[in-house]
Amino acid sequence: MKNPMRDFLSRLRWDKRMRGRRYVIRFVSRGAPRNYEEVESSEVVDVTRDGFVIVSRGEEKWIPYHRVVEIREEDSGRIIFSKEKKVYRFKP
């Protein structure tokens, strides 16, 4: 089964046409303020079958896809993915 979120994050890392674009990824993070954390797409260092790895404040952290609640373009605020609003725009 394909995972559109994994494919999207892989394209951000490897597709030359998408490298200049900046996105914000919001995910559930227990213990963080309001239990959410946000990272820029540039902090994603690996994309795996079940999640992705970020480096934030010098620390590596693995985030499973099911904890992602929103992905949006940093400059325009355009929402690519939102669990709450049921938005799924993973196609380029």
Tally of separate domains: 1
User: Which class do the helix and strand fractions yield?
Assistant: mainly beta
State which percent range the strand residues make up. 35-45%
Number of strands: 8
The gyration radius over C-alpha positions equals 12 Å
Main sheet attributes: strand count, strand direction, barrel closure: 5 strands, antiparallel
Textual characterization of the structure:
- The chain has a single domain (4-88), classed as SH3 type barrels (Roll), CATH 2.30.30.220.
- It contains one helix and eight strands, in the order H-E-E-E-E-E-E-E-E.
- It has one helix at residues 4-14, and strands spanning 23-28, 36-40, 44-47, 51-56, 59-64, 68-73, 79-82, 87-88.
- A five-stranded antiparallel beta sheet has the order 2-1-6-7-8, with no helix packed on it. A three-stranded antiparallel beta sheet has the order 3-4-5.
- The chain is globular, with a radius of gyration of 12 Å.
Please give a quick description of this structure.
This protein has a single domain, classed as SH3 type barrels (Roll), CATH 2.30.30. The protein contains 1 helix and 8 strands, in the order H-E-E-E-E-E-E-E-E. The protein has one helix spanning 4-14, and strands spanning 23-28, 36-40, 44-47, 51-56, 59-64, 68-73, 79-82, 87-88.
Summary keywords:
1 helix, about 90 residues, SH3 type barrels, about 10% helix, globular, three-stranded antiparallel β-sheet
Strand-helix topology:
Layout: H1 4-14, E1 23-28, E2 36-40, E3 44-47, E4 51-56, E5 59-64, E6 68-73, E7 79-82, E8 87-88
Antiparallel strand pairs: 1-2, 1-6, 3-4, 4-5, 6-7, 7-8
